[in-house]
Structures are given as C-alpha cells and as structure tokens.
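User: Design a sequence. Structure:
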C-alpha cells in the first residue's frame, strides 16, 4: 500500500493525496542528498517527506554563493607602460576558487580576458588616452560571486623635448682679464690722442710767431751811433741828410 502511495506521489498525481500530519516536506538537493540552499538551482531540487521528529539533512553548500573579491585595484608602471590589477581573497577559501576577469575599452563590450587562480594580472599594450573598465568575479565549483569593478585611463604619451646644444660658460676670471686689456688699450689710445693734441697746439703756437721784418730792424738802428771815430760819424750824418 505504501509503495503504491509513494509511487503515485512521485509521479505527480497527488490530487487525492493528503499529507499526513505525522510527516513534513523537505526540499532536497539532487545529487547531494542534502537540503537545498538558497543558491541551489531549481532544476537541482526535489521534494521528499520525512516523519516529524526525524533529524533533517544538513544544508548543502554545493551552490552556495562564493565571497566577492576585495581591494580590486589598478597599478600603473610608467617605465614599463603596463597595468597590474591586484585583489584580495580569504586564503582559507582559495582552494576551490578561481577568478574571472573581463575588460572593456572606451565603453565597448566587455570581454573575458583571463581566468586565473592568482591574485593579480598584468596588462600590456595599453592604448594612450583610452579608458579601461574591469570586472572581477570569484568562481566556485557551482557558483560565482558578485562582481568587483574598477577602471583606469591610460596616460597620453608625452612629446620628447628638443635638445639644445650646451653653451660654454664664460670664465669670470678670463672675462675680467679681457675687460682689463680693453681698458688698457683705451687708456693708451687716449694718451696718444693727448700727445697728438699737444704737438698740434705747439705747432700752432710756433706758426703764430712772425719773423721780424727787416724794416723794423733797420728802424731800430736808425739814428744809432756806431762806435766809430768822429770823422766817420760826421760823414754818415751828412750822407743821411742828402
């Protein structure tokens, strides 16, 4: 009788069957024999009845939602021009966990770029000026975590500055010596000019002095008596009166 009863219930024809008050319904996870959890897919659930007071199976963790990764952070290396994504996760739960990483560029469609069991991933060949968006989920045997997200904008390439040829600095000692030589040359030139001016003035002074006129010399001697004897003096006076 019980066999035919449970067969009818199992077949889904329970229109005439009423649940006895001595039993209770339990949702069991298919394949594990444990009670289904909130994360057990509907296709993996079945209903069983057990006598009240009987111990129930434990709740399955088969489809339990895994923890979300934390501290999902980008780090850019300017020298290598690479981007490293890193994150944290509970070490006690890492054994059956891997991490799925997706990427979108410039607001485009997100694509899976890797699945890894490591806690970091490095990206190369970044396009300057483009914004990169990332999502990271922890993947268990039968479920995934909520996604962690981060983004990064690749810096623009800087133009290399033009290189100017170095100018040799002027030695202050050499510059001072050069100035002294110039001053000495200027002083010598000034001295020469002064000598030339003085010579010119002397020449002008000499040129202004006129030679004595013969008439003046003659006038100065007119009427003068030469130291001669009386006879000659009288002769000269008579000659002048003619």
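Assistant: Done.
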């Amino acid at each position: 009788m019980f066999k035919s009863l449970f067969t009818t219930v199992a077949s889904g024809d329970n229109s005439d069957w009423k649940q006895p008050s001595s039993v209770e319904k339990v949702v069991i996870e298919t394949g594990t024999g444990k009670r289904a959890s909130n994360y057990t897919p509907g296709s993996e659930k079945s209903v069983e009845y057990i006598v009240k007071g009987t111990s129930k199976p434990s709740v399955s963790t088969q489809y339990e939602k895994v923890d979300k990764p934390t501290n999902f952070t980008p780090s850019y290396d300017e020298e290598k021009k690479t981007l490293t994504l890193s994150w944290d996760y509970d070490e006690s739960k890492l054994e059956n966990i891997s991490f799925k990483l997706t990427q979108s560029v410039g607001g485009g469609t997100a694509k899976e770029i890797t699945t890894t069991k490591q806690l970091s991933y490095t990206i190369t060949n970044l396009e300057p000026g483009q914004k990169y968006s990332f999502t990271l989920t922890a993947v268990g045997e039968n479920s995934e975590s909520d996604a962690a997200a981060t983004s990064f904008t690749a810096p623009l390439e800087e133009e290399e500055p033009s290189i100017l040829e170095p100018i040799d600095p002027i030695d202050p000692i050499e510059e001072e010596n050069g100035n002294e030589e110039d001053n000495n040359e200027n002083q010598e030139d000034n001295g020469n000019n002064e000598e030339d001016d003085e010579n010119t003035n002397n020449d002008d002074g000499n040129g202004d002095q006129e030679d004595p006129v013969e008439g003046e010399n003659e006038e100065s001697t007119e009427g003068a008596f030469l130291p001669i004897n009386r006879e000659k003096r009288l002769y000269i006076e008579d000659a002048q009166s003619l």
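Residues 172-208 form the longest helix (37 residues). Confidence is low (pLDDT under 50) at residues 1-5, 211-225.
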